[in-house]
Predict the structure.
Amino acid sequence: MEHTSLTRALALTHALADAVSHDAWERAAELVNERAALLMSLDADQTPDALAIVREIQRLDAHITELAMAGRERLMTNHRVAMQRIDAASRYQSTGMLG
């Protein structure tokens, strides 16, 4: 059963990487929650094959973290630009009402 859980956790990690790379943040959150339960159920003692899967999950997690940080920066930049546009539109509207 444990190997099945690890294999499923690895599949979820691949799906998570795909979701994050497509900015599908809600789906990513769902996958994280599903995967967490599997990872928390693992025993400390693992076979060499199981440890190889764990290392692959860790490698993917590092990549996912980089993708998520870049995605966060994009979202913050887009938000800042949108706020600047809203401010400019508000100033334009206020100026237009003066005349």
User: Anything to note?
Assistant: The chain is about 90% helix and 0% strand. The chain has a mean pLDDT of 93. The chain has one domain: 2-73.
